[in-house]
């Protein structure tokens, strides 16, 4: 997935702006409904949560048709990094295609941070659009 060295990533995280938002990394796997990983500012991605989005207040950036033209379909923003505004709800939502109950995040707004932030958890992360390959080791 490319990107910074471990030291560069740690330094970038340590200097992240803080505020009332989360950093989110879109993680698209075909046929799943989870959105991606969220973490608090200056927290390690190792502590990130894979989440479902509640879009009743704001739609996610890639709320598009799943069979639209390339670059203009659901999941086009895989691995984009965002600042996400909102809050965790008290409910867990089931994603049948990954067979997981996940935390649910109520999205109220977002800002794009980067279209190419590189690896997420480790420099040797690899992406496969058909199965979960990128996950934290806690």
Characterization of the model:
- This protein is mainly beta.
- It is 7% helix and 33% strand.
- Strands 1-2-3-5-4 form a 5-stranded mixed beta barrel.
- Strand 4 (81-95) and strand 5 (100-114) form a beta hairpin.
Helix/strand order, N-terminal first: HEEEEE
The structural domain count equals: 1
Rounded to the nearest angstrom, the radius of gyration is: 14 Å
The beta-strand count equals: 5
Silhouette: globular
In short:
With 138 residues, the chain is mostly beta strands.
Which helices and strands, and how do they pair?
Layout: H1 6-14, E1 22-26, E2 36-39, E3 49-54, E4 81-95, E5 100-114
Parallel strand pairs: 3-5
Antiparallel strand pairs: 1-2, 1-4, 2-3, 4-5
Quick tags:
1 helix; 33% strand; mainly beta; 7% helix; globular; 138 residues; single chain; five-stranded mixed β-barrel
């Amino acid at each position: 997935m490319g990107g910074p060295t471990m030291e560069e990533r740690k330094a970038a995280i340590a200097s992240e702006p803080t505020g009332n938002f989360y950093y989110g990394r879109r993680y698209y796997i075909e046929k799943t409904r989870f959105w991606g990983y969220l973490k608090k500012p200056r927290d390690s991605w190792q502590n990130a949560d894979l989440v479902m989005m509640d879009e009743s207040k704001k739609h996610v950036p890639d709320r598009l048709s799943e069979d639209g033209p390339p670059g203009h379909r659901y999941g086009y923003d895989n691995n984009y990094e965002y600042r996400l505004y909102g809050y965790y709800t008290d409910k867990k939502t089931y994603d049948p295609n990954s067979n997981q109950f996940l935390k649910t995040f109520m999205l109220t707004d977002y800002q794009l941070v980067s279209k190419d932030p590189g690896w997420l958890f480790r420099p040797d992360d690899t992406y496969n659009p058909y199965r979960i390959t990128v996950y934290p080791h806690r």
